[in-house]
Amino acid sequence: MSKKLLIVDDSPSVRQMVEMTLKGAGYAVKTASDGQAALNLCKTEMFDFVLTDQNMPNMDGITLIKSLRAMPSYARVPLIVLTTEAGETMKQKGKAAGATGWMVKPFDPKKLLEVVAKVLR
């Protein structure tokens, strides 16, 4: 059975590019347009991996990560941030919230697939 991945980004083009990359590698992918929509999905479905943007309306990525980490079923799920934010302070906030890793946009599809494969082992 293929792993279920959730992609969270307010940019339709980024969601589409990431979704195509991951589906092409055989993953089952769902998308959400902001952190609140993603959190609602995660309350009814279990995902093996969550990739989230940081800057989004309704709920940002770090708040989403904190919310997911508070749920026992998501305590060990890899949560990766994919964002334009490259500053060390923001990365530290992500790590403190429970992010598994941090990637900076624009993303390299090959690198994304490597990261996903590595954290899903």
UniProtKB/TrEMBL annotation:
GO terms for biological process: phosphorelay signal transduction system. InterPro entries: Bact_response_regulator (IPR050595), CheY-like_superfamily (IPR011006), Sig_transdc_resp-reg_receiver (IPR001789). Keywords: Phosphoprotein. Residues 4-120 form the Response regulatory domain. It comes from the Bacteria. It holds the Pfam family Response_reg. The keyword Glycoprotein does not apply. The modification 4-aspartylphosphate is found at D53. This is Response regulator receiver protein.
